[in-house]
Specification:
Strand content: 15-25%
CATH class of the largest domain: Alpha Beta
Distance between the termini: 28 Å
Number of helices: 13
CATH topology of the largest domain: TIM Barrel
Largest sheet: 7 strands, parallel
Shape: globular
Strand order of the largest sheet: 1-2-3-4-5-6-8
Radius of gyration: 22 Å
């Protein structure tokens, strides 16, 4: 299976009707919101990024950072026309864009598909109306449901949803209910970005006044683990957890507080593997005369071992026997299987 990559083009905060309390796309992308891409910018960026693509990768041109369908129609047409040239030439497989749920309608979809758009990501952030109101999103959960229903009338388009746990008014229980509601909408993929306090946002003022307390990294890991589980059980891929730790975000004074971590997804995976190993211990009677083989996929090894190997080391000590980690490329991801002379079993994240 070919790995998917995006040729990213940013339209920071452009097309958005207002400022949400958490958003400063200029800080996140390192580009000023007033600057519009020119035809030369678009072509040069696409060509430059195409030169780095390998033959075993599938590629989409992706417009991120703003509400694409809220841009002036002439600007949309210019951007899409150039991107479509690369689609028609067979150099990329399609076009991806992000937008607001209340900026989707049948006539908008007809326009997008005429230029070869293949993926649309909706910035839902939450499916709780109180959280959305406090974030000043300007749309409700009903807008999300309506947009999903419209997009689903176009079967060639992949649908993605983006969630931001930890916004003002959010709780772990609300975030889990949002994930459960999102799973019922059956998107093709999702992203989970725990909320950060970015300089220059209204959230910065709320944070400095004590009105808003951001999640710690540990809290965000726990919340995201709980949010991920219903999506896993529904078979919905989560293609990103945690905002990408770019040079712009790492710049001093950009992220003022919140759970920014370069390996956030791995932390979430470690949390769930820790739960699996604990569940496994409850199902096993330790056999001091036998070696316990624990089988996992190689891609899961770092998460199973945990920071500095402490998770696996603690498990092995508590089992009081010679536990061996076996790496098997044919083994399913997010699953542990065990066997010894007296016990055998399998558990996966979906069992939690």
């Amino acid at each position: 299976m070919k790995r998917h990559v995006n040729i990213a083009l940013f339209v920071p905060h452009q097309g958005c009707p207002k400022d949400c309390v958490f958003c400063n796309q200029a800080r996140i992308t390192g580009q000023k919101r007033e600057r519009q891409l020119t035809e030369e910018d678009v072509r040069q960026s696409i060509e430059t990024q195409l030169a780095t693509i390998r033959s075993d990768q599938t590629v989409e041109i992706a417009f991120f950072g703003g509400s694409f369908t809220g841009l002036p129609r002439g600007y949309q047409t210019m951007l899409l026309s150039i991107a479509h040239e690369f689609v028609a030439a067979g150099k990329v497989s399609g076009i991806r864009l992000s937008t607001r749920p209340d900026y989707i309608a049948p006539h908008i979809m007809d326009f997008l598909l005429s230029y070869g758009v293949t993926s649309i990501e909706l910035g839902c952030q939450s499916l709780d109306d109180e959280v959305l109101a406090r974030a000043k999103r300007g749309h409700t959960a009903a807008h999300v449901e309506r947009a999903v229903a419209i997009i689903r009338q176009y079967p060639t388009v992949q649908l993605g949803l983006q969630l931001l746990p930890g916004l003002p008014g959010d709780t772990r229980a609300i975030s889990v209910r949002t994930a459960q509601a999102a799973a019922m909408l059956r998107p093709d993929f999702m992203r989970i970005y725990p909320a950060l306090v970015i300089a220059g946002t209204e959230l910065e003022g709320m944070y400095r006044s004590g009105e808003y307390v951001p999640l710690t990294v540990d809290e965000a890991v726990q919340w995201t683990a709980e949010v991920w589980l219903p999506l896993l059980k529904a078979g919905i891929p989560v293609i990103r957890m945690g905002l990408h730790s770019s040079d712009d975000l790492r710049q001093a004074g950009t992220v003022l507080a919140g759970p920014l971590h370069p390996s956030f997804r791995q932390l979430v995976e470690t949390e769930l593997f820790s739960r699996l190993l604990k569940r496994m211990m409850e199902a096993i009677v330790p056999d001091t005369q036998a070696c316990l083989n624990v089988r996992i996929h190689p891609a899961d090894e770092t998460a199973v071992r945990g920071p500095k190997g402490m998770v696996w080391r603690t498990f092995a000590q508590q089992m009081r026997d010679e536990s061996k980690l076996v790496l098997d490329r044919d083994h399913p991801r997010y699953t542990v299987s065990w066997e010894s002379s007296s016990t055998v079993g399998t558990l996966s994240f979906t069992d939690l």
